[in-house]
Amino acid sequence: MILRLFGAKIAEGVHIYPTVRITMPWNIEIGETAAIGDRAILYALGAIYIGPRATVSQGAHLCAGSHDISKPDRPLIRPPIKIEQDAWIAADAFVGPGVTIGAGAIVGARAVAMRDVAPRTIVVGNPARVIRTQPSVP
Fold first, then answer.
1. How many domains is the chain built from?
2. Contact 63, 57 (CB under 8 A)
3. Digit-coded pLDDT (tens) for 74-109
4. How far is CA 29 from CA 2, 47, 77, 92, 128, in A?
5. What range does the domain containing 48 cover?
6. Helix, strand, coil fractions of the chain, as percent rounded to 5
7. In a domain, 116, yes or no
8. Which of 9, 25, 78, 90 lies in the 20 to 30 Å Cα band around 46?
């Protein structure tokens, strides 16, 4: 996979659509059998980790970069994003800088996650709000 030539850490069995847009691939790590869908954006100014079996659906946007608005010159900041194992970022969802999506969590279609999402939790809307928590899998 060509992304490895640019420093991305890509495990075996990962599926990445050819229309995915990736900034700074050397800041990306993707676990086994994860999938990145059509037209997804991985804006990896900071580190982006996508765990094993996680899915980032079509049009989703992971944004690991912003500006520090507390300072007048608004310097660039690069907070990491972590998508843990078995999580699903649904179509057109947005995950903001510094956010962790817990294991087995779901960020619903077009949701905007600007805060951490607990494991096995389903969030929807803008801003993302919890609609339920799934039971543990044995």
1. 1
2. no
3. 999 999 999 999 999 999 999 999 999 999 999 999
4. 14, 8, 19, 21, 25
5. 2-133
6. 5, 35, 60
7. yes
8. 90
Q: Residue 10: phi, psi to the nearest 5? A: -115, 120
Averaged over 45-49, what is the pLDDT?
98
pLDDT in tens, 51-78: 999 999 999 999 999 999 999 999 999 9
Closest by CA to 7, choosing from 22, 21, 25, is 25
Residue 135: both structure tokens together: 């039971």
Residue with tokens 């609609």, as numbered in its chain:
131
User: In this structure, is residue 138 part of a structural domain?
Assistant: no
Q: Which amino acid is at 34?
A: A
Q: What is the CATH number of the domain that holds 43?
A: 2.160.10.10
